[in-house]
Write a structure and sequence with these properties.
This protein is mainly beta and 182 residues long. Helices cover 8% and strands 41% of the residues.
Length: 182
């Protein structure tokens, strides 16, 4: 696997190193030893899937406070999506900065998000499915969200959302008293 650092500390793009022949290809998508050598989390408690019928479906941006803060490793297993991480870690030098990457069935790329990142994505084609590992179980009482178009963060989405849940559309503007642990 090839681990590429991003401008946000702890946030990585992970590319596979496929070995192919006339049958197709084989590659590791997770290796405890290789993740550990990069200083990344190696224990995950959930593996989730998100199937999205339409291009322009937006999900997120979600994150959780400790003790249920999540590390995520996200990949598109069908179709393509534009994945975004927003640094919500108090005291981080990149707090409030975001980074996006295209994940697709073709590029087989993964996105590693450390704890404290708000996460969301928008689908770039119909019938897109994301699969992701998470290091903590969902805890609704510790969940927070950032609205996809919160003016404070100025996230540059590649297209306007076509479909978004009421919950995700209604996240409030950034307010440290609500968005950050006390």
């Amino acid at each position: 696997m090839i681990f590429t650092k991003t401008p946000i500390e702890g946030l990585f793009i992970i590319d596979i190193e496929p070995r192919g022949d006339d049958r197709g290809l084989f590659a590791r998508t997770f290796c405890e030893k290789e993740f550990g050598a990069q200083g990344l989390k190696t224990h995950f408690t959930q593996n989730n899937t998100s199937f999205n019928v339409h291009k322009g479906t937006l999900r997120g941006l979600h994150y959780q406070f400790a003790p249920s803060a999540e590390v995520k490793v996200v990949r598109a297993v069908r179709g393509s999506l534009w994945d975004v991480a927003l640094d919500m870690r108090p005291g981080s030098p990149t707090f409030g900065q975001w980074f996006g990457v295209e994940l697709s069935q073709e590029n087989r790329r993964a996105f590693y998000l450390p704890e404290g990142m708000a996460h969301g994505f928008i689908t770039l084609e119909d019938a897109t499915e994301a699969a992701y590992m998470a290091s903590a179980a969902y805890a609704p009482d510790l969940e927070r969200g950032v609205r996809w178009n919160d003016p404070r963060f100025k996230i540059e989405w590649p297209l306007q959302p076509h479909t978004i849940s009421e919950k995700d559309a209604a996240w409030r503007d950034f307010d440290p008293s609500w968005h950050l642990p006390q």
